[in-house]
C-alpha cells in the first residue's frame, strides 16, 4: 500500500526479532520494502527488545549500522523487563527508550514503580533519547507518565492497533495526530 500520504511528522514503528536481524540481507530487504510503500526510511523506527544486547554478532550490528546509515532509527522496547546493559545503550544508538507495560501498570499503585518510571525517563534524557511507555490503558497512567517526564505513550487509551490501510485513512482525517 502507498503510505506516503501520511502526515509528514508521522513515523512508523516496526518490531524486529533477533532471527530477522541475524539475516545478512535484512537491511537490504527493509530498504526495499520501504521503497515499495513509498514510506521514507527517515520515518521508520525499528523496535528491538532488551535481549538483542545479548547477541552482538556481526550480522546484527551490520544490519543496524546499515539501516542507521539510511536514516532509520531504533528503539529499545520493553525496557525494564529484562537485562539491558547500560553501557551498550549508547553503542547501539537507540533514539527511544520504551518502558515496559508492567511498570506502567504498577505506576498508579505504588511509589516504587513510579520512582522507577521517573528514573527511566531521566536515563532516556541523559542519553539523548525519547522516553516512551507502552501499555497505557487509563487516564491515571497517562497523567503519571506526563508527571514523570515521558515524551510519548502507546496503548489502548491512545489508539487501537491499525493495519496499513487504516493508517492511510487515519492520516487523511487527522494529519497532525
Strand order of the biggest β-sheet? 1-2-3-4-5-6
**Beta-strand segment tally:** 6
Output mean pLDDT: 83
Distance between the termini: 20 Å
The whole-angstrom Rg is 17 Å
How many strands, which pairing sense, and closed or not: the largest β-sheet? 6 strands, parallel
Helix content: 40-55%
What is the general shape? globular
Q: Please trace the helix and strand order, writing H or E for each element.
A: EHHEHEHEHHEHEH
Task: Note down, in words, how this protein is organized.
There is one protein chain. By secondary structure, this protein is an alpha/beta fold. Helix content is 42%, strand content 16%. The protein is built from eight helices and six strands, in the order βααβαβαβααβαβα. The protein has a six-stranded parallel β-sheet with strand order 1-2-3-4-5-6. α2 packs parallel to α3 and α5 crosses α6 (111-126). It starts with 11 loop residues before the first strand and ends with a helix.
In short:
This protein is of the alpha/beta class. The protein is 42% helix and 16% strand. The chain contains eight helices and six strands; from the N terminus they run E-H-H-E-H-E-H-E-H-H-E-H-E-H.
Provide tags for this entry.
single chain, 177 residues, alpha/beta, 6-stranded parallel beta sheet, globular, disordered N terminus
Amino acid at each position: 500500500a502507498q503510505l506516503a500520504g501520511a502526515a509528514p511528522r508521522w513515523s512508523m514503528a516496526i518490531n524486529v526479532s533477533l532471527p530477522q536481524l541475524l539475516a545478512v540481507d535484512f537491511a537490504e530487504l527493509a530498504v526495499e520494502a520501504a521503497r515499495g510503500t513509498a514510506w521514507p526510511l527517515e520515518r521508520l523506527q525499528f523496535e528491538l527488545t532488551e535481549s538483542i544486547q545479548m547477541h552482538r554478532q556481526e550480522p546484527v550490528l551490520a544490519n543496524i549500522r546499515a539501516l542507521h546509515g539510511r536514516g532509520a532509527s531504533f528503539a529499545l522496547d520493553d525496557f525494564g523487563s529484562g537485562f539491558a546493559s547500560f553501557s551498550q545503550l549508547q553503542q547501539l544508538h537507540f533514539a527511544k527508550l520504551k518502558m515496559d507495560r508492567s511498570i506502567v501498570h504498577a505506576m498508579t499503585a505504588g511509589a516504587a514503580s513510579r520512582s522507577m518510571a521517573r528514573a527511566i525517563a531521566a536515563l532516556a534524557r541523559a542519553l539523548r533519547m525519547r522516553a516512551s511507555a507502552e501499555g497505557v490503558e487509563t487516564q491515571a497512567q497517562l497523567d503519571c507518565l506526563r508527571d514523570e517526564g515521558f515524551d510519548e505513550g502507546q496503548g489502548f487509551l491512545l489508539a487501537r492497533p491499525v493495519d496499513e490501510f487504516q493508517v492511510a485513512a487515519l492520516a487523511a482525517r487527522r494529519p497532525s495526530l
